[in-house]
């Protein structure tokens, strides 16, 4: 089975398409790969997010990460995480672009600096900066 999957794509239905595009493309800097429109107001945009991984976590780990990063259970079943170079600066930019800070950048036991945000599109997002390369 090695090498069969070429890409992972997360498809998200967002009520405020323009706000979500402004946040993810313009504020976070995800480059636009393609955009399409159709009948009526049908629109979709595919944004490049670098390397993708699928992280599977059991409920105990899900609760542990919430506790470490936020101090209480907050994340829904799905959460999007983006690795960034400067978590405090990217968090400030994300907030200016419409995200709400759930928890500021916090150093984790696994040596990353993680911020939690509620982003446009009703998405729960982690911005993380690896402190050790």
TrEMBL record:
Signal peptide: none
Pfam family, one: Glyoxalase_6
Domain VOC: 4-130
Alphabetical list of InterPro entries matching this protein: Glyas_Bleomycin-R_OHBP_Dase, Glyoxalase_6, VOC_core
Protein name: VOC domain-containing protein
